[in-house]
Design goal:
Length: about 325
């Protein structure tokens, strides 16, 4: 009996050297697993596509259809790029049993991909499985979460122990799990999806440019009865924010606020979204008072509260049309 196939999708945006490093790690982790790796260049416009294509050929990665480099032709964000890669399918024209999504600055250890795939094989109602992710310093990154909520928005902004203890069941980041744990959602840095689930619920909502797209996908999956799991035995090293520059933000970009607004309005309605924003603002006010009284340093991006209200109550982004993922693109098999 043949083993279920895996299509590993790596999204590049102006990080060709990191992407090639991630691809090398993925190819090693894919040894013994039927499937392929596809690198999607998200319209980098900096020569990334040519550089990665040449490197893949010179390193022998393209032999036997082990790896392809394709161009999305536009930068529609993380979800759109990953959808493009999933629609590309296998080079044979078939659809894999599983999609493995990997950030361009994430490097799976040998066995990481197999652990995710084997878990999903053994648990038919599990639709998604994510890895234990840590930095180069071996410090764990938080990748296990509860779904955002009004209470969670208030707790996140307040950053006050008494409030966090009172709302402990709404705190979005979960304590670091020690074993296999069912979670609401997990980060997309190293995430395996069951193709059957994607065929049922669709791929990423491309209205999200960056952020909240995997949260939305996991919520849609949960509403259709698919569970999401965190697997600590699948281990990945992640640099973090190489493409987005999040660690260097001095002001939160508009697309973060737009994604947040779209998540709440789409999944809970306009009234809920408005109350969630007011809860966030109330929590922020508590934090600002604490900062003043305790003379704590400013750590938030500039004008966060003003930007929160501007994007939350201004004109919303236009939702992207739903796009099927199950049909591979013929031109990507040539």
């Amino acid at each position: 009996m043949s083993q279920p196939t895996v299509l590993c999708v790596i999204l590049n945006y102006r990080t060709p050297e990191l992407t090639l490093k991630a691809a090398a790690a993925a190819l090693t982790a894919m040894e013994g697993i039927p499937g392929e790796v596809v690198i999607v260049d998200n319209d980098s416009g900096d020569g990334s596509f040519a550089q990665m294509s040449q490197a893949a050929t010179s390193r022998g990665w393209t032999a036997g259809n082990r790896l392809r480099v394709i161009s999305a032709g536009r930068n529609g964000g993380f979800g759109a790029g990953m959808n493009f890669g999933m629609r590309a399918g296998l080079s044979s024209g078939g659809t894999p049993a599983f999609y493995y999504l990997l950030n361009s600055d994430a490097f799976p250890e040998p066995g990481a991909i197999r652990h995710l795939r084997d878990f999903l094989i053994a648990h038919p109602t599990a639709g998604l499985a994510g890895s234990h992710v840590e930095g180069e310093d071996a410090k764990p990154h938080c990748t296990a979460f509860r779904f955002p909520s009004i209470a969670g928005e208030f707790e996140t902004a307040a950053r006050t122990g008494l409030i966090s203890r009172a709302l402990k069941h709404a705190v979005v980041p979960l304590p670091q799990p020690k074993g296999e744990t069912q979670v609401d959602w997990t980060a997309g840095a190293s995430l395996m999806l069951r193709a059957q689930m994607i065929e049922q619920i669709g791929g990423f909502d491309e209205t999200f440019f960056l952020y909240f797209e995997e949260t939305d996908l996991c919520l849609r999956a949960a509403r259709e009865g698919w569970s999401c799991w965190y697997l600590p035995q699948s281990r990945v090293t992640h640099l973090g924010s190489a493409s987005t520059g999040m660690k260097r933000w001095t002001r939160t970009p508009g697309y973060w606020f737009e994604s947040r607004r779209h998540y709440f309005t789409k999944n809970h309605g306009h009234a809920y979204a408005a109350v969630a924003t007011l809860a966030r603002a109330a929590g922020q006010a508590i934090w600002l008072l604490r900062r003043f009284l305790e003379r704590k340093p400013q750590t938030d991006p500039e004008h966060f509260l003003r930007d929160l209200f501007t994007y939350s109550f201004g004109k919303p982004a236009t939702p992207a049309p739903a796009r099927a993922v199950s049909a591979p693109l013929a031109e990507d098999r040539k």
